[in-house]
Design goal:
Layout lengths: L9 H7 L12 E9 L4 H19 L10 E6 L2 E7 L3 E9 L16 H5 L4 E12 L20 E5 L4 E5 L9 E7 L4 H22 L1 H27 L6 H43 L10 H95 L6 H28 L9
Parallel strand pairs: 5-8
Antiparallel strand pairs: 1-4, 1-5, 2-3, 3-4, 6-7, 7-8
């Protein structure tokens, strides 16, 4: 059958929904799970994560995966590894099937090369020992297992339609690992694997979501100072005085830069915390918890402890974005006031220049009048000299009469000449007015 050409991402997208499949598990089974957080740079995270995995593959004598993989499974000496790569972290799940007397004694992680563990590039964010044990009692006596958790307060429930029971204290113990116990009543291999994966996801996503809480607290401290600064600036803006507006605009610009820097630095962390929190709630819902008498469910525990922390992150994010918008509005308002003040100053300057131009014009007209009088005086003097010369040649005329009579004619001629010159200077030869 001839089909159209495949989209270049068709197989990649089809395989994506099958990525990170849960392992099939059967009791008795024990797991040691660690989540390693790497640098925020995706490229560096990929290289460092693959390098760490490659060193373990060399130790185990298995083939190293390519840098494009996001899921890897290997086995060595009855020890299984499931490796997954996420955006900010990678996870290692070491598991081993076999009987055990106590679920958290001699953990599986003790079989992993200690030097390799100590030289992992990233930072440890989650570490859990999880045991899957058979249990034929539908409602076990919690006193039989509480000592495995250091007599801590237990959280748990019946899960998967009552086919299993989960117990944990959500605490980090002396060995730096948390502890989870899954009692298999009627869980199948696939259902047990999915349940274990959900439990590990809940703890991982819960921890990653809480990474935003210290950021929210630090942001809240910054916001208090920034909000006071903005309130002071807007209060000064409300006053009638305008001589401080450039200084206020400088303060507001610096405040805007500080706020936008916080937005750029923390927006990813807040968005990631929100996404991880949503995933945590989804994984808890997939457990289908049923209450055990006297034990708080995981959902109830998260609602009481995790939800307030996420509300703090959401509140800090919202306050930060609101402050950014308020600073932007205040900046626009202050810039508008400064622009109006400058326009008024420009108008006053133009009016002053107009008055000076009018004064210069009047002074020019006065000078022109004096110039006409001066030129007329000199021209009339020349006429007088000419009349005297004619009289010496024998022409009968009165020098004084000729000189006096020439004055109005000379003055009129000088006035017309100046007027024509002025008109010539104001108009281009083609008749286009000068700008």
């Amino acid at each position: 059958m001839r089909l159209p050409p495949n989209h270049p991402l068709r197989y990649l997208l089809s395989n994506e929904i099958h990525a990170r499949p849960p392992q099939e598990l059967s009791a008795p089974e024990r797991l040691s799970y660690i989540a390693i957080n790497y640098d925020s740079d995706v490229a560096n995270t990929t290289n460092a994560a693959i390098d760490d995995l490659a060193r373990l593959c060399v130790i185990w004598g298995v083939q190293t995966p390519t840098s494009e993989v996001t899921h890897f499974v290997a086995e060595h000496s009855n020890l299984r590894l499931k490796w997954e790569r996420h955006t900010e972290f990678v996870t290692y799940t070491f598991s081993r099937n076999g009987d055990f007397e106590r679920p958290f004694e001699n953990p599986v992680i003790a079989l992993v090369n200690e030097e390799w563990l100590a030289t992992l590039t990233g930072k440890l964010v989650v570490a859990i020992h999880l045991a899957v044990q058979e249990n034929q009692v539908f409602i076990p006596d919690l006193q039989d297992v509480v000592h495995e958790f250091g007599d801590n307060y237990l959280v748990g429930a019946k899960v998967a339609g009552g086919n299993g029971i989960v117990l944990t204290d959500l605490m980090i113990h002396a060995d730096e690992f948390g502890r989870m116990l899954l009692m298999d009543i009627k869980l199948g291999k696939r259902q047990a694997g999915r349940t274990v994966q959900r439990l590990l996801d809940i703890e991982t996503y819960r921890t990653m979501a809480l990474l935003g809480l210290p950021v929210a607290r630090a942001t809240a401290a910054m916001l208090r100072g920034a909000e006071r600064e903005l309130a002071e600036i807007t209060s000064l803006m409300a006053q009638d005085s305008t001589h401080d507006e450039p200084a206020l605009l400088l303060r507001l610009t610096r405040l805007a830069a500080t706020v936008e820097s916080e937005v750029a630095a923390n927006s990813f962390r807040f968005g990631a915390s929100r996404a991880y929190y949503d995933l945590t709630k989804r994984r808890i819902a997939e457990l289908r918890e049923e209450r055990l008498t006297g034990v708080q469910t995981i959902e109830e525990f998260m609602d009481r402890r995790l939800a307030p922390a996420m509300a703090t992150c959401s509140s800090a994010e919202k306050r930060l974005l609101d402050l950014s918008e308020r600073v932007a509005r205040a900046s626009d308002l202050l810039r508008t006031r400064v622009d109006i003040e400058r326009e008024q100053q420009n108008q006053a300057l133009l009016a002053s220049m107009n008055r000076r131009a009018q004064m210069q014009l009047r002074l020019q007209q006065t000078v022109e009048g004096l110039s006409i009088a001066a030129i007329t005086y000199y021209v009339v003097g020349l006429v007088g000299y000419a009349a005297k010369a004619l009289k010496e040649t024998g022409v009968p005329l009165s020098v004084e009469l000729v000189t006096g009579a020439s004055i109005p004619f000379v003055a009129l001629a000088m006035w017309l000449a100046v007027r024509r010159l002025r008109k010539h200077l104001r108009v281009e030869p083609e008749g286009v007015a000068r700008p």
